[in-house]
Each structure stands twice: as C-alpha cells, then as structure tokens.
Amino acid sequence: MSAVTAPGTVTAGCSPASRFDVARVRADFPALGQLVRGRPLVYLDNAATTQKPRAVVEALVGFYTRDCANVHRGVHELSQRATEAYESARRTVARFLNATPDEIVFTRGTTEAINLVAQSFGRSILAEQDEILVTELEHHSNIVPWQMLAEQTGARLVVAPINDRGEIVLEELERRLNERTRLIALAHVSNALGTVNPVEEICRMARQRGIAVLVDGAQAVPHLRVDVRALGCDFYAFSGHKIYGPTGIGVLYGKAELLERMPPYQGGGDMIRSVSFAGTLYNDPPFRFEAGTPHIAGAIGLAAAIEYLDRLGLGEIGRHEQELLEAATIALAEIPGVRLVGTARHKAAVVSFVLDGVHPHDVATVLDHEGVAVRAGHHCAQPLMERLGLPATTRASFALYNTLEEVEVLARAVRRAREIFG
Length: 422
Ligand code: 7TS
Prior knowledge:
Layout: H1 22-27, E1 35-36, E2 39-40, E3 42-43, H2 54-67, H3 77-97, E4 104-107, H4 110-125, E5 131-135, H5 144-153, E6 156-160, H6 170-175, E7 181-187, H7 199-208, E8 212-216, H8 228-231, E9 235-239, E10 250-254, H9 256-261, E11 272-276, E12 279-282, H10 296-312, H11 314-333, E13 338-341, E14 350-355, H12 360-369, E15 372-373, E16 375-377, H13 382-388, E17 393-397, H14 404-421
Parallel strand pairs: 3-15, 5-6, 5-7, 7-8, 8-9
Antiparallel strand pairs: 1-2, 4-10, 9-10, 11-12, 13-14, 14-17, 16-17
Helix pairs in contact: 2-10, 3-10, 4-5, 11-14, 12-14
C-alpha cells in the first residue's frame, strides 16, 4: 500500500524504484487543482470522460494558433503541416494498437466506430436469419446499432449471459455460436462493472468458426496495453476522450483485408478517388471511411494523449490503478449497507455499488457536496441493470491521477450519505 503524505501527494507503490509519481502526474492536469463546493475536487467519473493533461490542451492550441488548415487538399504550407500532423496522429494510434496506419479510421468516437462497422461491414455480409452475438454487459452503443442492423437485414440478435459476479460465461457464449453466427460484438472492459472480458479466448473461438469479432475498447484502452494482433480481433473501437484526449475523436481499427472489402459508410469529400455523374470511384481505406473534413485538431490531441500515456507507461498506470481499485473495494465493502455490484476476478478500476435504502442518485448528490464526482444511473447499460435486478448503481471510476487519499474521501462521503439517509 502507498503512503499518504498530503492531499494529492500519494507516492504510489511507495517504492523508490517506482517510476510512477502521482503528485507529478496531477500537476499535468490543470482541472484537478480546483475546489468544488469549497472542497478539493475528487474526480471519480473517469469512465464517462477523463480530464486532460496540459500536453493535450497545448497540442490543440498549437494546431489552432499555428497550423490550422484543411487536410489532404492544399499545396500550401499550412495545409501540408496540418496533413502531416493528422497523418502522423494516425501513425501514433497505429503504433499504440500494434496495427498499421491504413487500418486506422478516425471517427467521432466509439459509438460512430461501431455504427460504421454495423452499416458498412454488417450490412454487406448479413442475410435474413443470420446472427449477431452480443453479451449482457454491453453499453447501449454496442447494442442499438446491432438492433438497427437486425431490423434492416432480418438478422437476429443473440445474447450471451453473465454470471452473478458480472463475468461472461464462456461455455454459454460458445453454445450460442453456430453456422448462422456472423459477428460477435463485445466490450473489452465493462463500463458499469469494470469486468475485463477474456477477449483473446473469444476471438480464438470465433476464428475457428470464421466469425468476425468487434471489440468495444472504450473502457479498456485507458487501463490496459491493447495489441489488436495479439487479441486476434477484426475490429477494435475506442474514444479519445476516455484516454485523456479530446471529445469528438475516436478510432476504428479494422483488419486491412476487411476494410479493403467494405463499402463506404458515408459519402462526401475525401472518401473518393474520382466523381462523375456516370459513377464514382471510392478511395482506399482508411480514407474511404472518412468523408468530409475530419476532426483534425482532435486527432492531433489524441496523439498527444497517447504520447503522454506512453511516457508514463501503461504498465505503471495499470499497477497504480489496481492499487486504487483494491483500496476502494476494501473501503467500500467495509461500510454497513454497501453492496458492491460486479465482483469479477479480473477487473479494471471501476467500482459500482448500491447503498441499502438509498437511491444511487441521492448517494451521488451527497458525494457531490463533498466535492466527489461520480456517476449514478444505469450507465447506458439498461439490459445489464435488468439482469442484475437493479434500477441503477453509483459508480466510482478511477484514472491514473487518482490517489489513495481520494479513495478515503470517497469512503467517508459514502458513510456520510448513509448517516443522512440511514
Ligand atoms: N462503449 C463503452 C463500453 C462505453 O463505456 C461508452 C461510453 C461507449 C461505448 C460510448 O462511447 P462514446 O465516446 O462514443 O460516447 N461510456 C460512458 C459511461 O460509462 N459513462 O458515460 C459514458
């Protein structure tokens, strides 16, 4: 366990060998220094979105104050700079996932990436009675696009169950695979419970049967080192804003041979090779899937976020966050009336809980008065809440800049909620 020295200055791991200095890390995030309701902000809503390091803010300011121009179309100096920065961001993302740049499509976020795969890949391969398999713990973004696709094609949505700990039951998932299954779409990490799913194993099962796999990595990339080749997935989606990057930018990784065969998602500028009224020739991937002026600054900001994470090391970050997870799990479980929701053996730093007799929104409101930001609700995972027999939970989700002292503030605030409503 780490030593708490002063507010926000926990020395993670306490070991002099540890490279991870959380006090120094916090100094990189200007938003963390503020008071909320007269108290130091304790930001534990990181699964919704993360705060941004100065490096990301400066990358955005740098683009807008020096290099602002459109990409892929100007011969002038600024357009060349903007294009180089945008394509360099693509290379950074490719390295981050162990992919190649032509396999990286910039999107608005995870949601758009999944919709792209549904409407381009899904629509071109699915026939009536075909099956798409999802799991009970998916975010609405990884359910609704498939329901829409099923309506459009006559395909069926099949759901693999979880157990009471919030883990996918692999044998049950495997039992639902058959010759009609065309695609498996599942989260790498559950946003509501923190469960880390055995994606590699599921990809192996799928590969043996010729089934494509899309992984929703929105909650995984901030916490785990992701290697799409090692995972063996066909598609991987994530959002920039959940890994300390800007909002409005996200990534779809698609295997080169699949992207090559996929029709465009949207039509417009940049996604074409030539246009005439007799017919239009589409551009190669990834440009085929990036119609219109992209979020250039967003891509540049995302690359700055990835470089920031690389400097700190995802291994170090993961160790620090696991320490926070363990401390939060123990501290909350000790509070009478608290029940933890989601007790998977392999978890990322997300703790969902309910407090006996107190609505999760009331818990969150008391916490807010103590300066603690958490999320309460169904977390855009209503089918999961239904499976758990709960209308909602309160969720604390941790990031690399959180401290053990903040875990203590959280636990004290939950005790306070219990006193007020108990
Ligand atoms: N998939 C998962 C697993 C998510 O957690 C989220 C957002 C999305 C997809 C959608 O991401 P977007 O960036 O396209 O909106 N999750 C949450 C959350 O847990 N609280 O707020 C947003």
